[in-house]
Amino acid sequence: MSQPLDLAALQAHPAPSTFKDAWQARLERWYAHPGLYQWSLRNPLTRWLTRRRTRKLFDLMAGFVHSQVLLGCVRLDLFRALHHAPASLNDLARRTGLAPAVLQRLLLSAVALDLLEHRSQGRFGLGPLGVPLAQHEGIAQMIEHNHLLYQDMQDPLQFLGNAWSGGMAEYWPYAHEKPAVAMPQAEVDKFTRYSELMAASQGFVVQEILSSYFFDEHRCVLDVGAGRGRFVSELAAHAPHLQFKMFDLPPVLALAREGLQAKGLSERVALHPGSFLDDPLPEGADLITLVRVAHDHPDAVVQQILQKAYAALPLGGALLLAEPMAQPDEEAGQPGASVDAYFHFYLLAMGAGRLRTPHELQTMMEEAGFTHVEQVPNAMPIHARILLGRKSQCLPLNHQNSVSKH
Ligand SMILES: C[S@@+](CC[C@H](N)C(=O)[O-])C[C@H]1O[C@@H](n2cnc3c(N)ncnc32)[C@H](O)[C@@H]1O
Q1: What is the pTM of this model?
Q2: Are 112 and 68 in contact (CB under 8 A)?
Q3: Strand 269-273 to strand 385-390: parallel, antiparallel, or no bridges (unpaired)?
Q4: Does the residue 147 lie in any domain?
Q5: pLDDT digits (tens, 9 = 90+) for 224-256
Q6: Residue 380 within any structural domain of the chain
Q7: Residues 192-215: tens digit of each pLDDT
Q8: How far, in Å, from the CA of 335 to the mean position of ligand 1?
Q9: Same domain for 245 and 114
Q10: Is the CB of 227 under 6 A from ligand 1?
Q11: Closest ligand 1 atom to 252 CA
């Protein structure tokens, strides 16, 4: 690792430590009691709890097999092939070129994981988790992409000791090195590759933002780290009164230009190539959006981006920050926390960014000068959580003091 990593601020538990610690220690002793397992399985009131815990642990152990089953199905294109058209084992064996006896293991595993389902006459069809995979190309692309991460993590301790030496670090050129001004074609290809993946996988995040936030009050939106412009294109269709600016690295915006032209958006979208490490953000927008950008970068860079966003906004302007965030303490115990494990490792393998809680990002936004920072509730926080902050119409107190002194 060539850069130091930021440490997350661990929140102290609100309960008095002596009581909570004593309770946790007692629970741990119960769990460790040699007779508890058998006793709880005999007792109909506790059996479900022990079964659930055992099952959860088994799933953790088997997680690698589960994701390989998923990847196998994606590589064989089974989800699209079986959408609306269930097929028999022999038929699928002919189409995939795999021997029926081995293909059957894959299909039965996929049925066990709810990806596929048994249908009449011994055929296989899509299960409830297979349907979105047939419909959204972006999910299949992310599953294929995750293979890089899992290769890097094959030996987790070696990975932790040397996280940026693998395929993921290589895949994300900007995440640990300053992008060069002039770059060879092989470097440009890397920008094309990740920009395509981002555009394909951004659909769910865009949907979360468009269905949770009203853009009526805004006139012009600057999307920072805009990629190929999928968010801007979909927002342009959603809110026809808006004008746009896009800011991203030059090779990325060069890719975006063609797509915007094809959608007839060239007149409504101004492109501003640059780097937020070196350049100021363009002025003129009353809403700045940062979608899946902050988590790629260390705290010092995020502070820089937020300060530049604050400087670029007019008084009364707003910043909307949307990305996956760590599950806040208030939601402890609710399902969904396991998603954090994925992002902690993904972002480590990628570079020096990290998964932050909404509270951490809120504090960073406030430190950059934003006020009235609040979380915009959205239906599917796995895809992204959304924070909104304002550049207040009133001058901040310290600024007022310095003005009144003159
Ligand atoms: C994870 S991608 C997200 C893209 C898009 N907002 C989305 O959600 O799909 C992060 C984006 O930030 C851009 N980026 C990274 N470093 C940058 C820099 N120093 N200046 C400007 N843009 C940068 C990348 O090129 C990329 O398009």
Answers
A1: 0.93
A2: no
A3: unpaired
A4: no
A5: 999 999 999 999 999 999 999 999 999 999 999
A6: yes
A7: 999 999 999 999 999 999 999 999
A8: 30
A9: no
A10: yes
A11: 25
